[in-house]
Amino acid sequence: MRDLGRLCAKQWLIKHYKRLGTECSVNIARDYLDDLRMPVERATSAPKRTQDILLLSPDPGKG
Questions:
Q1: What is the pLDDT of residues 1-58, one digit of tens each?
Q2: Which of 3, 6, 23, 26 could tie 19 with a disulfide, CB 3.0–4.6 Å?
Q3: Cα–Cα distance for residue pair 42/36, rounded to 1 Å
Q4: Can you tell me the distance from the alpha carbon of 26 to that of 12, in angstroms, rounded to the nearest whole number?
């Protein structure tokens, strides 16, 4: 996995090196704001107190 990541990074740098710091190399609208992506539901707020978390956690001794 590490070697694959390094290879991908090297290929990206070869392709985009001259543009670093001068041009955008990512199209935010195309890559991250695509209307065809699956909708994401807003997460519910997490419990703020440790006691609340413990009450919501399954009992490891059961089951």
A1: 899 999 999 998 998 888 888 887 677 777 777 666 666 676 666 656 665 656 655 6
A2: 23
A3: 18
A4: 11
